[in-house]
Amino acid sequence: MSASDAHRAIETVFRIEAPKLIGGLVRLTRDIGRAEELAQDALVAALAQWPQDGVPRNPGAWLMQAAKHRAIDALRRDKLLQRKHEELGHDSETDALAMPDLDAALDDEVGDDLLRLIFIACHPVLSTEARLALTLRLLGGLTTEEIARAFLVPEPTMAQRLVRAKKALADARVPFEVPHGVELAQRLASVLEVVYLIFNEGYAATAGHDWVRPALCEEAMRLGRILAERAPLEPEVHGLVALMELQASRLRARLGPDGEPILLLDQNRARWDQLLIGRGLKALERAQRLAGAAPGPYLLQAALAACHARARTAEETDWRRIAALYAVLAAINPSPIVELNRAVAVSMAEGPAAGLVLVEALADEPALRGYHLLPSVHGDLLAKLGRHGEAAAAFDRAASLTRNAKERALLEERAATARGAAATG
Known about the structure:
By secondary structure, the protein is mainly alpha-helical. Among the domains are: about 5-105; about 320-365, no CATH class; about 370-425. It has helices at about 5-30, 30-55, 60-75, 80-85, 95-105, 115-120, 130-140, 145-150, 155-170, 180-205, 215-230, 235-250, 275-290, 295-310, 320-330, 335-350, 350-360, 375-385, 390-400, 405-425; strands at about 205-210, 405. One of its GO terms (molecular function) is DNA binding.
């Protein structure tokens, strides 16, 4: 194996193994920054040794062993070993007596380090931006440069965001554990929010030149599957997995030849990924069995996505059921965006005039003041009703609000079409 091939193999293995490695090290050191440093030290050791000796049969175990040795050295050097024993009420006679306990601490599989790490990265003490960045760093293995590029901020800004996030967790003395009881429900909501925000940024990028970023969708789905495997009785976890897989099934059909957006009703459904649809429907069924008569917001959104997935053509879509599901979602999770989506469903089920009444009722909603999809939907309904001049103005407004170049081009095109229709009408 050439040195370049070995380096690529090492980087791939490290990205896969890093979350588990960091999780085990955080359990020992109770310090995310230190755990990351130790994991990076193990990577440096691999880069030095593997090109000569070859990639080991169990690379994850090799990296953990290398990190373990460095963790022990670090604990000796910083006298953290003595502090750990004092916290446990032990008297440390010699470092040699302590080493087996350290080994056991790193090898202990009681609990789940990945699950604990997800709950730490998504802790409510952090801002939403910090939770997103830290989750992609610790669980996704993305570099600071990659995360900065994904969220269109300068790399130094993202680096400072990550440093502040780790400091905030240390200052808050966040325990390395999976919460229980009432706290579990509250913390799980934060975790699911972060995962879905990552997915949405990939599914419909808020800014930049690309409308979709499939890599972010893949990362969010991977995190969702980890959660589903390690929290198998939580219906909302399976609901989120179902929602993401059903939406991701459309990714190939959402873009035209030049990367231009293709809206849902105009998509070639033969390009939808049937494997992802099957997996999403299966996850939805599991979520529904677990939830019973008390569906949560992710489960309901997955049920909405399933209505589209089951329709072989746009005309076969059950818009009345979609409108009814949005009404249930609005009842348990009130939101102006949910109401806007319900208005779209009502317009499809009962006609554009019925939807327009609901959309115009949202015109003064503060939360939607800068939301480009409100004037976009408004323009669409006005155009369907033949009010093309008003529709053009609404599309112009929507184009001025979006920060995504591809979406802006689509909205400007729709505005021009509406103006043309108004001129000829």
